[in-house]
Amino acid sequence: MTEPQTAPAVEVAGLRKSFGDLEVLRGIDLTVAPGEVVCVIGPSGSGKSTLLRCMNLLERPTAGTVRVGGADITDRDADIDAIRRGIGMVFQQFNLFPHLNALANVTIAQRRVLRRAPAEAERVARENLERVGLADKADAYPAQLSGGQQQRVAIARALAMDPSVMLFDEPTSALDPELVGDVLGVMRKLAGEGMTMVVVTHEMSFAREVADRAVFMDGGVIVEEGPAARVVGEPREERTRTFLRRVLDPASAVPGEE
Predict the structure, then answer these.
(1) Measured between alpha carbons, how far is 71 from 57 in angstroms, rounded to an integer?
(2) In this structure, are strands 196-200 and 10-19 parallel, antiparallel, or unpaired?
(3) Which of 38, 109, 161, 202 has the greatest number of CB atoms lying within 10 Å of its CB?
């Protein structure tokens, strides 16, 4: 008996995005299966963050389609708000409300967007703060939290919306080095739980060890993709090798080398 085909969690086809005369994405095709963790790597300006922002229509593509859970979010008639509720997004900056404590930051979207009752929203918020290791910080305000703790509150806020897909846009790039591990630990745990994740990151060890697949972008195109351990450990394309050499061993980079 043939196994039923499962629709991709995310399906990007022929995606292009221009800002004026600058073409940032030049025909991206990418499919993410349910439960898959995909890390997108590449130099600054390669289009990684724009790709992620197109996946939940924070940027509207110039051409091409994006399907999430089978729904075409690039269709002009699509109910974007309804589709977007199933997509969690975590940014470089934490974007927490400074006048609200951690618990309120995690409940506010539940109440306003999902229309959850206050008691239910609080229950879900506390569950997810515990999930990210911050159950004891529910009453703390952002200014009382480290950057890593703030980012974990932001992750809890996204998880509280019960997303089917989580998008992470360089979630550790604004953190001091000693705070990175706690955030990556939470993401590692989510991956172990089977959460579908697309992660733009410069953390190569995380990509190699946690991701199912790595996608290397440069110049608005996908240069190389495949099993993460292979792409990061034994890249086939010279451009990928050059990038990884610069990231993994900056001292060995040749000045002017691209």
Answers:
(1) 13
(2) unpaired
(3) 38
182 phi, psi to nearest 5 deg: -65, -40
Contact by Cβ (8 Å): 253, 246 = yes
For 145-155, write each residue's pLDDT tens digit: 999 999 999 99
Between the CA of residue 110 and those of 23, 117, 171, what are the distances in Å? 36, 9, 22
Cβ atoms of residues 34 and 27 within 8 Å? no
Buried b (16+ CB within 10 A) or exposed e, 186-215: bbeebbeeebbbbbbbbbbebbbebbbbbb
The whole-number pLDDT of residue 184 equals: 95
Rounded Cα–Cα distance for residues 13 and 90 (Å): 23
Cα separation values, 53 from 2, 148, 240, Å:
36, 22, 23
User: How many residues are listed for the chain in this entry?
Assistant: 258
What span, in angstroms and rounded, lies between the C-alpha atoms of 240 and 157? 34
User: Which tokens sit at 176?
Assistant: 């001091």
Across 57-76, average pLDDT: 93
* Cα–Cα nearest to 6, from 36, 30, 28, 45: 36
DSSP state of 141: -
